[in-house]
Amino acid sequence: MLSTTGIHHITAMVNDAQRTIDFYASVLGLRLVKKTINFDRPEVYHLYFGNETGDPGTVITFFPWPKQLKGRIGTGQVGVTSYAIPEDALAFWQNRLKTFQIEYQTATRFGEQYVQFEDPDGLLIELVERKNGKLSTWEFGGITKDVAIKGFAGAILYSAQPNETAYVLEDILGLQTVGQEDEFLRFATDESTNQMIDIKLTASVRGLMGAGTVHHIAWRAKDEQEHQRWRELLTDKGFHPTEFKDRNYFQAIYVQEKGGILFEIATDEPGFTVDEELEHLGEQLQLPEWLEAKREELEELVPTIEVRTLEEEEQS
C-alpha cells in the first residue's frame, strides 16, 4: 500500500511580496530558498521559504499579487498551518512575537500547547514544540538553531465533508488515525516526519479563495515512479487527478477531494539546488527554461524585493 511520509509544501495567496518576506524570513526566520514566478501567471512572484536546504516538509510558498481580493478562511481549505519548534523554545517565540507586536493566543489540543497568531494577510499560523525532527541549521535575525522553526508540525483542515476528507487521509494517503478530541479528528504521518493532521469537525463558513488563504496542501511522493503510482491509485479510487505538471523543483499532480480541499502530490526530487548552489538559494530570480527568453520583460513586471533585518530586531 502506498503511504505518503507527510506534507511536501503548503501554498498560500497574499498581496505584498516584500511584506511576506519581512514576516516569514525576518520575523519567523525561515530561509527564502527560491525566488521565481508563478508559471501560470508569470507577472506574479512565486516565493518559497523553508529550512536551509528547502527540504520537503519545511517549505511554505506564496503567490503575492497586489490585485487579488481578500479571501475568507473556511471550509474547503487548509485553515491553520502548524510549525514545529524545538523543545523549550515556546517562551522564546512568545517573546519574539511581542517584540514585533504580533498578538497571539495559546490553545491546547491533544495534550500539546500551541501559540496561535496571524500573518500580515490573515493566514492562521501556530507553533508547537516537538521532540522529533532534525533541527534547522538556518540562523537569522537573532534566531539560533536551538529555537528555529524545524518545519511543518501539521495542519488543520476545514473540510466541507469531514468524513470524506478522513477517508482520503487514511485510506488513500495512508495516514494513521490518532483519535478524536472535542471538535478535532487527528491523523499522524510517518514517524520520521511526526506531523499531525487535524480535521475540524464543527461547521465553518464557506471558504473564499483570495489573499490570506491557503491555495493547496501538497503531499510527498518519493520519486517519479512513485508519483506515477499515486496518479494510478487516485484514478482507480474514482478521483480525477490532473496530468503531471513540471514545477522545475518537483513534479506535481492535483486533485480536489470531496471536502473541497485542493490536494497536490509532489515529488521530493529534484529539489531547489537544480538551478542554484546551496549557498546562494533565493538570491536571484530563477526562471524555467521556457521563460528565460522573457527575463528582461518579467524582471520589469515584478517588484524589487530583499531579505532584510527589521528595526524591531535591531532594537531588541
Broad shape: globular
If you compute it from the alpha carbons, what radius of gyration comes out, rounded to the nearest whole angstrom?
19 Å
What's the number of helices? 6
Question: Architecture, CATH level 2?
Answer: Roll
Spans of at least 5 consecutive residues whose pLDDT stays below 50 are: none
Q: How many individual β-strands? A: 16
- Named CATH topology: 2,3-Dihydroxybiphenyl 1,2-Dioxygenase, domain 1
Given helix and strand content, the structural type is alpha+beta
How many separate domains make up the residues?
A: 1
Distance between the termini: 51 Å
Largest sheet strand order: 2-3-4-1-13-16-15-14
Average pLDDT number: 95
Helix share of residues?
10-25%
Provide the succession of SSEs: EHEEEEHEEEEHEEEEHEEEHH
Q: Any overview of this molecule?
A:
The chain is α+β, with helices and mostly antiparallel strands and 316 residues long. The protein is built from 6 helices and 16 strands. It has an 8-stranded mixed β-sheet. Strands 6-7-8-5-9-12-11-10 form an 8-stranded mixed β-sheet, with helices on one face. Strand 11 and strand 12 (196-200) form a beta hairpin. The chain is globular, with a radius of gyration of 19 Å. The chain starts with 6 loop residues before the first strand and ends with a helix. The model has no long low-confidence stretch (mean pLDDT 95).
